[in-house]
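Listing S7. Sequence submitted for prediction.
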Amino acid sequence: MAHLYQGTLGRVRWFVRRFGAAELVRLPLRILSAPLVLRLLRPGHFTFRGAALSYFYHRYNVTWANERCVEVPIARAYLEQAAGDTLEVGNVLGHYFPVRHTVLDKFEHAPGVVNADIVGYAPGKKFSLILSISTFEHIGFDDEGEGSSSAKILAAIASCRRLLAPSGKLVVTVPLGYNPELDALIERDQLGHARASFMKRVARREWREVPRAEAIGARFGSPFPFANVVWVAEFEPF
């Protein structure tokens, strides 16, 4: 099975389909201006579940322009609290800082990354923390496999929960408005999470934790580029 953004031409087609032609023009401009932008940006903070966290600005994937600016610090906060082995589903954090935990990614080839599907993955051990940052929205939606995205997402979450230690925790972040089937699962509370929060982009570089009613129905790419609401959910082991 291949993902829709495999190869240079495939990646361009996928990017235009998901983010629009205008963003295809803006992206190289953001990349070229990154050194200057990063020097000019002032440090800022946001609150997540009562804790003050610093926005994360990095050249890779132009985090100042998208949801990575809150997802990465949230993920790091969970990492700092983890007491045992950690598994990351989707190779994200290693692009920003050295990681020591196990990283699983079905498609992305990189040093230290295990190329396998989380469904059926059997490492022979349990994890105290499993993290997945903006990865589950792509399952069954950005690949060429058959079957519904929702069924594949549910299967992936179930596989993760089976890999958790008795007191372990699965933490998933996804953007709302990207994958309609995933949005429907979240709106109907069908994913089986134990706890969830919604981070909403209220200004170009300002995010705020908001009630569910204010988050559900958010559009991807509007009014700001990329995600406008990020769902952060915790799951317990089976």
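Caption to Listing S7: primary sequence and predicted structure tokens for the chain studied. The mean pLDDT is 93. The longest strand covers residues 164-175.
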